[in-house]
Every structure is written in structure tokens, then in C-alpha cells.
């Protein structure tokens, strides 16, 4: 999860988030190259004596038209690749339905019979020692690691957004509409998120907690959890 004075993303816990972080670094390197070139040209213009050049103006116009186009291509191609990867959901191992309310989440495991529960934030006065304030919930979302999880997101009242940064997931919850996304937790752990759409007075108090466990532990939990 994020910590104070953190300058980069949270550690990636899914293949999609690893791709997003790689694209972020790639875009920053392109921006750094552009800024360095512009800074060099400005410095050269301010410090050197201006003289007439034998370079044809048409050649200069051709260069400053082609170069930006090439830069855009180097950004667009990997971006489109990641977009298609995020939209592709093939044969999910588990389907989870997340319903946003003011101000809590309801989860339904549609592959199981009557496996549904509400997830509320634990008030600060009831928070166990060592747990995170405003981020811990009374019922976590338990998923098996290394399994493709399809998440169907909707809302019961107003706009919400189901977001878990370390998993590279952020999907709007819209009343009367079903949106879907997917993720694959590549390691066991507890991943925190929050509603990312302003949804009213207690918008800041509907966190999301996803716990990734080995498949055997998930099967044990699903057989013991009350419906």
C-alpha cells in the first residue's frame, strides 16, 4: 500500500499493473528526451550569436512535423496494446459482483450459491491495533491467487468507482448499468483501495480490501463463510 513521501506507484501485484508501470516509465523517458532537446535549443539560442543558415526552411518544417509524429507513435502503440489487454477477459476462473451503496460495498460470488456479504469500513474506535485507519473493513474480498477474476461492477444509488491501485483496477459503478473488469493477483497479500468517485458525504469512508490467498485457503474460506 502507499506510504508517506512515496513518489512512485504502489508495488505491482498483477501483470496488468506491471505493464502500466512499464508504460509509465517509457512515457517519462520520452518526455525527458523532449525536455532535454528543448532545453538545449533554448540554451543554444540564448548563448550563441544568431547567423543565417544554409538549411532550407522546408527541410526544417519537414523535420519538426515528422519527429512529433514519430513520438506519438512510440506512445500510442504500447498504450493501445495495454488497453486491449485490460479489456480482454477470457475464461475467468471466478466471477465477483461488486455493488456500490452509500457508503459500503456488497459483494456476490456468482459461482457459489448464496455467497454474498456487505463490506463496511471499521470505525476508528473499533479498529484493532496495527490495522490501517479508514482502510480496513469488516469483511474482506477473498480471491485465489494466480487466477483470473472477473469483477462485475454496478451501483444501487449514485456513481461509485471500484479501484485497487496495486492490482491495476479502476471501474466506475453506475446505477442501472453493469461494467466489468478483471485482474489476476500474482502473489498472496492484502491490497487496499477506495471508492474513486465522489459519491456523497461519506465518500472517503467506503474502502476496498482484497485478500489474495492460495487456492486451498480460498476453498476452505468459501465453505466456512456464512451466506
UniProtKB/TrEMBL annotation:
Cofactor section: Cu cation
Highest taxon, organism lineage: Eukaryota
InterPro entries, alphabetized: CcO_II, CcO_II-like_C, CcO_II_C, Copper_CuA, Cupredoxin, Cyt_c_oxidase_su2, Cyt_c_oxidase_su2_TM_dom, Cyt_c_oxidase_su2_TM_sf
CDD domains: CcO_II_C
Reaction(s) the record says it catalyses: 4 Fe(II)-[cytochrome c] + O2 + 8 H(+)(in) = 4 Fe(III)-[cytochrome c] + 2 H2O + 4 H(+)(out)
GO BP: ATP synthesis coupled electron transport
Location(s), subcellular: Mitochondrion inner membrane
Entry GO MF terms: copper ion binding; cytochrome-c oxidase activity; oxidoreductase activity
GO cellular component terms listed in the entry, alphabetical order: mitochondrial inner membrane
Cofactor descriptive note: Binds a copper A center.
Residue span, Cytochrome oxidase subunit II transmembrane region profile domain: 1-90
Keywords: Copper, Electron transport, Magnesium, Membrane, Metal-binding, Mitochondrion, Mitochondrion inner membrane, Respiratory chain, Translocase, Transmembrane, Transmembrane helix, Transport
Membrane-spanning ranges: 21-42, 62-84
Residues of the Cytochrome oxidase subunit II copper A binding domain: 91-224
Pfam family, one: COX2
Bilayer topology term: Multi-pass membrane protein
Function: Component of the cytochrome c oxidase, the last enzyme in the mitochondrial electron transport chain which drives oxidative phosphorylation. The respiratory chain contains 3 multisubunit complexes succinate dehydrogenase (complex II, CII), ubiquinol-cytochrome c oxidoreductase (cytochrome b-c1 complex, complex III, CIII) and cytochrome c oxidase (complex IV, CIV), that cooperate to transfer electrons derived from NADH and succinate to molecular oxygen, creating an electrochemical gradient over the inner membrane that drives transmembrane transport and the ATP synthase.
Family (UniProt): Belongs to the cytochrome c oxidase subunit 2 family.
Listed name of the protein: Cytochrome c oxidase subunit 2
Originating species: Myiothlypis fulvicauda
Amino acid at each position: 500500500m502507499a506510504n508517506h513521501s512515496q513518489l512512485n506507484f504502489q508495488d505491482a501485484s498483477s501483470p496488468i499493473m506491471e505493464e502500466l508501470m512499464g508504460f509509465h516509465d517509457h512515457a517519462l523517458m520520452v518526455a525527458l528526451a523532449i525536455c532535454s532537446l528543448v532545453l538545449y535549443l533554448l540554451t543554444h539560442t540564448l548563448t550563441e550569436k544568431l547567423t543565417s543558415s544554409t538549411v532550407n526552411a522546408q527541410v526544417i518544417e519537414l523535420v519538426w512535423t515528422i519527429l512529433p509524429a514519430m513520438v506519438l507513435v512510440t506512445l500510442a502503440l504500447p498504450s493501445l496494446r495495454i488497453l486491449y489487454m485490460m479489456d480482454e477477459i477470457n475464461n475467468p476462473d471466478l466471477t465477483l459482483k461488486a455493488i456500490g451503496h452509500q457508503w459500503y460495498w456488497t459483494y456476490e460470488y456468482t459461482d457459489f450459491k448464496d455467497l454474498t456479504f456487505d463490506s463496511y469500513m471499521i470505525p476508528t474506535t473499533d479498529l484493532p491495533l496495527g490495522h490501517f485507519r479508514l482502510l480496513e473493513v469488516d469483511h474482506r474480498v477473498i480471491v485465489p491467487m494466480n487466477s483470473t477474476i472477473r469483477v462485475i461492477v454496478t451501483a444501487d444509488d449514485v456513481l461509485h468507482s471500484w479501484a485497487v491501485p496495486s492490482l491495476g483496477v479502476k471501474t466506475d459503478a453506475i446505477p442501472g448499468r453493469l461494467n466489468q473488469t478483471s485482474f489476476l493477483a500474482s502473489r498472496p497479500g492484502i491490497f487496499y483501495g477506495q471508492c474513486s468517485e465522489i459519491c456523497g458525504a461519506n465518500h472517503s469512508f467506503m474502502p476496498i480490501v482484497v485478500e489474495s490467498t492460495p487456492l486451498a485457503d480460498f476453498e476452505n474460506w468459501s465453505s466456512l463463510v456464512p451466506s
